[in-house]
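Supplementary Methods S3. Complex input for the glutamic acid-bound model.
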Amino acid sequence: MERVVKRNPGEPEFHQAVHEVLESLRPVIAKHPEYVTSGVLERIVEPERQVIFRVPWVNDAGEMVVNRGFRVQFNSAIGPYKGGLRFHPSVYLGIIKFLGFEQIFKNSLTGLPMGGGKGGSDFDPRGKSEGEIMRFCQSFMTELYRHIGPDTDVPAGDIGVGGREIGYLFGQYKRIVNAFEGVLTGKGISWGGSLARPEATGYGTAYFAEEMLASRGESFEGKTVTISGYGNVGTYLIEKVNQLGGKVVTIADEYGYVYDPDGIKDEKLNFLMDLWTVYRRPAQDYAREFGLQWVEGRSPWEVPCDIAVPTATQNELSLADAQRLVSNGCICVAEGANMPCTADAVNYFLEKSVLFGPAKAVNAGGVAVSGLEMSQNSMRFAWTFAEVDERLKGIMKDIYRKSSEAAKEYGLGENLVAGANIAGFIKVADAMMAQGVV
Ligand code: GLU
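Predicted complex, serialized as structure tokens:
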């Protein structure tokens, strides 16, 4: 860990992600010292390749703008690099490395043959016109195309990158390489996308939480749920929670949160579906539209709930938030976003025996259906919505089973954080050992 901090200065999110995994691996290393003697640990924390590039584009005012693009190809032991692209002003190398590192273990947990990678840019899609977004995506792909490919590295969406952006990126890739191939996932249905890919992360999060709740004889029925982000994960999570008989009462952004005590449903959910994903608008617009309470400058975790699902971004739920949730009677926390709980918040939930689902396991449904999209592309075939949804459900149940079995095997009780890290790690580590020092 000391070496990781020294070799990667100024990247606290990356240190945080590595620290959590290495801590979880203590009992594994004690039993299997070969993971250390073969150098697997030292290699797994070092990306196989990192690309940083200039993304110049022209805005609607005719001015030239320069953003920075990234692709970190972290680990290809069990398949081509796979992971999303994030467009957000907070993006720098440390964010992409933390996300890429997490992706290695998440993808491994899905049981599908995908390595780990991540990319993105410090481009801010908020307030940009369609034309600006298209020109930015085209410029981004004009460099990225040479580093990716359907058997090399398959990017997808993440914060700020949805179906529209994937379309512009795919169009530019196809134009440059002159081949129609499955180089990106999250594509539109008529051009190689998979049914249920948009729903997959939100639905998968609900399926995983159902498994956790069932372990204590509970379900979503009649439960109050608080969430934060209302993008791809949050909106489809709400849809599924409603189907399962629960009620989601908050959405939030960096400026505050909306409290909707009757639950987000029907025409309100329809409105919310496009609010971020299409228009990139603030959460307060939802409160205004339906005359609901807007709570400025505070976090949704102060609202009493049974289940809390952070669905926005890294470190959005602090120790103080965790204490508040527990004292208000919250029984289950599932990480819909990537690393949304700070390390001390996670430890607090584990100490208090709250059902806690870590991001790598909880939100793996998105990349799992990306894996299914790759399979369908390879077969030149498409499954029905019900077929994909059924496979997604099976994968989420399997991830829960693998994570809880690994935790038990290493004497860690119900600790799914350690369980997911261990189960994800062992598959990748064994593949790395089999392939020699590469
Ligand atoms: N960005 C998503 C994640 O964090 C999906 C990645 C993908 O589908 O490749 O897992």
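The chain has a mean pLDDT of 98. Residues 46-181 form a domain with the Rossmann fold fold (CATH 3.40.50.10860).
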